[in-house]
Amino acid sequence: MEANKGKGEQGMQIPGGQMDRPVSFHFMESMLPKVVKRRVHALKRLQVQCAHIEAKFYEEVHELERKYAALYQPMFEKRRDVVTGTVEPTDAECEWHSEREEEEELAEQVKEKASIEDAKKEEAKPEEDPKGIPEFWLTIFKSVDMLSDMLQEHDEAILKHLKDIQVKFSEPGQPMSFTLEFHFEPNGYFNNAVLTKVYKMKSEPDATEPFSFEGPEIIDCEGCQIDWHKGKDVTVKTIKKKQKHKGRGTVRTVTKQVPNDSFFNFFNPIKASPEGEMDEDSEFTLATDFEIGHFFRERIVPRAVLYFTGEALEDDESFEEEEMEEGDEEEQDDEGDDDDDDEGDTNKEQPQPAECKQQ
């Protein structure tokens, strides 16, 4: 994937004069004196050497991630046990002092009053005691936009059986990668206990574009074969189609299976082209897949409880709003500069507002 495509063209100034429009770096170099250009080439060689050192740095970071993943693992296993109801946390483990403690205490008092009234009405009804935290991961999927866009109604019943998601890093000496493991309890949809998705990575500057290196990148991914029970495969649907015989004119109805939208298509990704030549739709699909894999690894798995409660969603929204506000300020500043340039030019045609494109 050409993550840094388009970075070659930038607005620059030529020493000793101004350019009214952006120029390519090739043109910039052509304007330099020969002796200066020679020194710039020496700096570029140094820059490539820096990129290779940076690549080694990220390889060591990957090893450090792998080391600390082993330290996180016991806590993630305890999380899984609490979610599935295998383990009941102690009173001490359940103590939590919230910043909204007073509000929660008031709400608790209201709940107690309501529960007393409800208890009087429903004394005959047995008390419900759900096991673990029901629909923990499904709730997260439905709350996060990136995941809910993939989720279909027929997926929800299956994801109720999802009991854990784990991230596993490649072993020392192996090519850099990470694996997402989706652990399911026995269910009536497929035989797999674990569904996996491997994301292959590289941390080395591209030979043709070494200056585009900004750290490790995902270069490919591999899913797994799902052993569906008969008639339970939600990634396909059966359609009926009428066919008319050209000679006899008779009509027959045939059935065939066609792809169906489902989250579980996540485990059957398109493959990256070795030559790097893919159509625009395929490139977009693959880039989106890489983004989702990265999001699972960096956000969803480490902070699952905060996505379940919605607190992480608030943080994500605040970050997006902050980015948008900064972008708006830049646009306003640019517009102000244009106004200054146009001041006094009453005959200049006023610019028309650009058509808004929803992201």
Automatic annotation (TrEMBL):
Recite the UniProt keywords alphabetically: Nucleus
Quote the biased-composition stretches of kind Acidic residues, using this chain's numbering: 312-344
Biased composition annotated in UniProt, kind: Basic and acidic residues? 108-130
User: Which GO cellular component terms are attached?
Assistant: nucleus
Chain spans, region Disordered: 92-130, 312-359
Which Pfam families does the UniProt record give? NAP
**Is the Nucleus keyword given for this protein?**
yes
Q: Where is the signal peptide?
A: none
UniProt-annotated location(s): Nucleus
Family assignment?
A: Belongs to the nucleosome assembly protein (NAP) family.
Q: What is this protein called?
A: Nucleosome assembly protein 1-like 4
Gene source species: Pagothenia borchgrevinki
Native organism taxonomy: Eukaryota, Metazoa, Chordata, Craniata, Vertebrata
